[in-house]
Q: What sequence folds into this?
């Protein structure tokens, strides 16, 4: 059940990131040849087109950890690969939370010990910051 919450949370985060791209493109009448799909493509889009470094925004590490936890559940039976540089921050978070178990096969995520509410709240903070930045760059009065 807890892994399902992570999958659902990531699905919402991913959809929102892509939705903000579509809305931004409509507002300033640009036309992307290809919709960014993967996290590296999304980071590149926001950096190149909106001059926003996603990985420098508040709570990005939590958002990225949700992505990694999601992928680990869906593609690796809940194991997280310690040899991938992208996974370092997520592994550090797991160690802080003591939400992992060491196995011969690697590090297994204990989804029941993940702070779902905190991950959700961090995602909301991340999107609040991102929305304000995008609105400012598009000249939109956001929430004032």
A:
């Amino acid at each position: 059940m807890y892994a399902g919450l992570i999958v659902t949370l990531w699905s919402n985060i991913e959809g929102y990131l892509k939705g903000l791209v579509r809305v931004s493109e409509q507002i300033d009448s640009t036309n992307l040849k290809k919709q960014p799909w993967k996290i590296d493509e999304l980071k590149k889009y926001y950096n190149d087109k909106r001059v926003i470094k996603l990985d420098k925004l508040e709570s990005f590490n939590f958002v990225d950890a949700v992505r990694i936890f999601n992928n680990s559940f869906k593609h690796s039976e809940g194991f997280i690969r310690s040899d991938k540089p992208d996974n370092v921050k997520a592994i550090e978070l797991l160690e802080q939370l003591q939400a992992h178990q060491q196995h011969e096969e690697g590090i297994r995520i204990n989804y029941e010990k993940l702070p779902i509410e905190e991950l959700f709240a961090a995602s909301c903070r991340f999107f609040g910051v991102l929305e304000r930045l995008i609105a400012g760059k598009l000249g939109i009065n956001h929430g004032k």
In short: Residues 68 and 87 are 7 Å apart (CA to CA).
